[in-house]
Amino acid sequence: MRAVRVGMLGLGTVGSGTLAVLRRNAEEISRRAGRAIEVTHAVVRDPARARQVPLEGLTVAADPAAVVDNPAIDIVCELMGGTEPARTLVLRALAHGKPVVTANKALIATHGNEIFAAARATGLMVAFEAAVAGGIPIIKTLREGLAGNRIEGLAGIINGTCNFILSAMQSRGLDFEQALTEAQALGYAEADPAFDIEGVDAAHKLTILASIAFGIPLDCARVHVEGITGVHRADVEHAAELGYRLKLLGIARRGPSGIELRVHPTLVPARQLIANVEGVLNAVLVQGDALGPLLLSGAGAGAEATASAVVADLVDVVRVSTADPHNRVPHLAFQPEYIVAQPVVPIDEVCCPFYLRMLAEDRPGVLADVARIFAEHDISLEAVLQKAPSGHHRHVPIVFLTSRVRERALRDALARIADLPSIRGGVISIRIETFAAGA
To answer: Are residues 129 and 94 in the same domain?
Structure first.
């Protein structure tokens, strides 16, 4: 039986890693797939650029449409990134009767509904495991391994750049800018890091996970997003004193009034396993009604880590190429007719505990004024941490941990507190998530 021929759109970090894994593990992969899988064509912007894998044996093109349209190609592997021309090329490949493997989270999060509809109409697969959390098989786990569970919620460290920055601030006392500069020097952050540090990348990934977990349409516009640019080293240090670590989390959770979809900095108890995922590693914590908590952790980016997921998708596509399309695992886990929009809880209605820090004048009665405002808004306090004044400073930091509180009530209280003449500047607030014991 002849080899399955793959046309690769993009031969950058992930593309090169995928080619290397396919070549190195060719025999093992063919034993698993039942046929050899070979990359025969590739789209390369600069053929002269040095790469870790040689281009010998590949037909190299500058025009991706030429690869997509080539009748000799069996599977199109889209590793270009971005939404265009990726969307057009993926739809074109499907129209030509070619299944697609992609690692493009922005494409799936923003155009996945359209792409999957086109795939169903042509009876083809679109595989996208590598779009979320690199080499961690979280999509297959949610879609297949946990098919017997009602997913109650999930939370993920799904951006390695942010996790590296926050880990460096935690472990080495760096300021945000220092940690970001180091991440850029090591290649963990782009020259323009906004997509990562503003939470957009994590929001795309959360959109995909939530759709698979709950059977809802892909709609990244409904995710509440906050990045880490406002995180201060002082808050990382105070949180550690109180037994917490700071992470950027993507959180999707069922509730009585709808689904919470939010990405933001979050304090997590230091005893939790997910709080101890450091550096550029990713982790996803899933809560199923039958299984309980499940934590998957590993490399969320990198050439061969992501290639691991891309190659696994290629094997899956080859395995099911002759199967009845109606009996395949659905793209978003649920049968298409059961993908149903559900209400998303506005962030003002979300309830959770909070960490709060303010600079207060060091004199009697200030703490009582603040506590009175909290009481008037039915906000209970779990802990108070007041730092001793240093030097001739008239203001000292005070840290509060609240019980669960509705966000709207907290914002109203904080607005009043910020107006007190004894409070300097605004009030820093960070949400807290405790998760299941031991998870």
So the answer is: yes
pLDDT at 407 over 90: yes
Distance of alpha carbon 332 from alpha carbon 313, whole angstroms: 15
Q: Does some domain include residue 126?
A: yes
CA distance 138 to 31: 24
Q: Would 437 be classed as within a structural domain?
A: no
Query: What does the buried/exposed string (b/e) look like for 261-274 if buried means 16 or more CB atoms within 10 Å of the residue's CB?
Result: bbbbbbbbbeebeb
Rg of the chain taking only CA atoms, in angstroms: 24
Q: What is the total count of domains within the chain?
A: 3
Residue 202 has pLDDT above 50, yes or no: yes
pLDDT of residue 438: 38
DSSP 188: S
Catalytic residues: 205
User: What residue numbers bound the domain in which 171 lies?
Assistant: 138-301
**Helices 233-241 and 160-172: crossing angle, nearest 10°?**
70
Residues 218 and 242 in one domain: yes
- Name the pLDDT band for 214 (thresholds 50, 70, 90): very high
The verdict on 173 and 308 lying in the same domain is: no
